[in-house]
Amino acid sequence: MKTEFLLVGQGLCGTWLSYFLEQEKRDFIVLDPGHLPNASLMAGGLINPVTGRRLVTTWLIDELMPFAQLHYTELGQQLYSEQYSHSPQLIEERSILQFFSHPDSANIFTVRATEQQDYLHRPTTAPDSARFFDPLLGLGLIKKSYQIALDVLLPAYKDKLRKEGRLLEKKFNYQALKKSSNGFRFEDIEFDQLIFCDGIGLHDNPLFDHLPVAPVKGEALIVQAPGLPATHIFKGPLTMTPLKRTDHWWVGSSYEWDFTDAQPSEQFRTSTEHSLRQWLKVPFTVADHWAAIRPGSKERRPFVGKHPQEPRIGLLGGMGTKGCSLAPYFARQLVQHLLYDAPLHPEADLGRFNIN
Ligand SMILES: Cc1cc2nc3c(=O)[nH]c(=O)nc-3n(C[C@H](O)[C@H](O)[C@H](O)COP(=O)(O)OP(=O)(O)OC[C@H]3O[C@@H](n4cnc5c(N)ncnc54)[C@H](O)[C@@H]3O)c2cc1C
Question: Whose CA, among 50, 84, 89, 313, lies 20 to 30 Å from 98?
Answer without folding.
Answer: 89
